[in-house]
Amino acid sequence: MNAGSVAVVVPEGFGVPSWDLYELSIPCTVFGKAQPDLADPWYDLRLCSTGELQQDGSPPGAGLSLSTPYGLDDLVGADTVIVPSVPDPCVDEGRPLPPALITALRRAYEGGARMVSLCTGAFALAEAGLLDGRRATAHWMHTAQLAERFPKVRVDDSVLYVDDGDVLTSAGLTAGLDLCLHLVRRDLGAHVANQLARRMVVPAHRPGGQAQFVDLSVPTTDDGSLAPVLDWARAHLDQPLTVEDLARRAAMSPRTLHRRLRAATGATPLQWLLNQRLARAQSLLESTDLPIEKVGELSGLGTANNFRHHFLRQIGVSPGSYRRAFPRAVPASLPSVPGSRPPGEGSGRPPAAPRRPPRTSSAGA
């Protein structure tokens, strides 16, 4: 087992936005501080800048400027190369990355380096052609753009990270920490990774994938004519609903409803219904103490067993694990759903005093 050298790409040519500092700090924290009691030698970390300051000394583009003695030439020869993120214009506007960076990434890979991306760093590996034909991931807010721009990449938006041997990719933000700890586990063993996680006060391994963090509640639709039937369906999720019911309510044939809903939301009517039921279940798990059986009933997912089956399959964790990951804070008012009632109503006793929310450490993708 060997730690080796880790080269981290710093997109200096665009400046480093404060938002991207999180992903940049993760490999610095995991690989940059020596842990001689766990493994000696530890990793040799290098921050490699992609550009230079302007002639007046100011950083090009918005964001922070980091001073480092290493450049793109130092990527070549590193054991592991990590791209924590790429600038927003490269994701949102399709702006190309510096050709010198793409060349350096290809040279590093051809030289035998293990290539890693965190969050939107996958766009850099994809632009270099290193993800062609591979399964890969990124932050769930950007996976659709990644798949559209690079059709040769098999994008998986449900996982925290993908280990494809010599090329690894992670979802956004804290999922990058999951992947970096996974790298330590691969290089130095489970004991070292577990002890390092304990020192960082994070789980050594989180259950499920990033599907549990995706917002299913808001559909993507520009078809205003469907709004009334979709609103009606959301108000009746606790009742049995079929495609025929929705089509009848919308005054159109089931085939027409299927075509128009698919065009507006990207989902079939049945998938749309399932997503809305799951979103309702997530909201109830986060904001109430209702039993699992009642949550399944109010969200229209049926019995506790049926509810658990669909939730685990689509979200990636059990309802109980999800509730523990998103503990209930005291809301101003509980969500209005059929069959629910405020605490104490109808019980013959006053509502219980609000509980202090438990102190937890939250994790996000």
Automatic annotation (TrEMBL):
<dbReference type="InterPro" id="IPR018060">
    <property type="entry name" value="HTH_AraC"/>
</dbReference>
<feature type="domain" description="HTH araC/xylS-type">
    <location>
        <begin position="227"/>
        <end position="325"/>
    </location>
</feature>
<keyword id="KW-0238">DNA-binding</keyword>
<feature type="compositionally biased region" description="Low complexity">
    <location>
        <begin position="335"/>
        <end position="350"/>
    </location>
</feature>
<dbReference type="Pfam" id="PF12833">
    <property type="entry name" value="HTH_18"/>
</dbReference>
<dbReference type="InterPro" id="IPR052158">
    <property type="entry name" value="INH-QAR"/>
</dbReference>
<protein>
    <submittedName>
        <fullName>GlxA family transcriptional regulator</fullName>
    </submittedName>
</protein>
<dbReference type="InterPro" id="IPR018062">
    <property type="entry name" value="HTH_AraC-typ_CS"/>
</dbReference>
<keyword id="KW-0804">Transcription</keyword>
<keyword id="KW-0805">Transcription regulation</keyword>
<dbReference type="InterPro" id="IPR002818">
    <property type="entry name" value="DJ-1/PfpI"/>
</dbReference>
<feature type="region of interest" description="Disordered">
    <location>
        <begin position="328"/>
        <end position="365"/>
    </location>
</feature>
<dbReference type="InterPro" id="IPR009057">
    <property type="entry name" value="Homeodomain-like_sf"/>
</dbReference>
<dbReference type="Pfam" id="PF01965">
    <property type="entry name" value="DJ-1_PfpI"/>
</dbReference>
<dbReference type="InterPro" id="IPR029062">
    <property type="entry name" value="Class_I_gatase-like"/>
</dbReference>
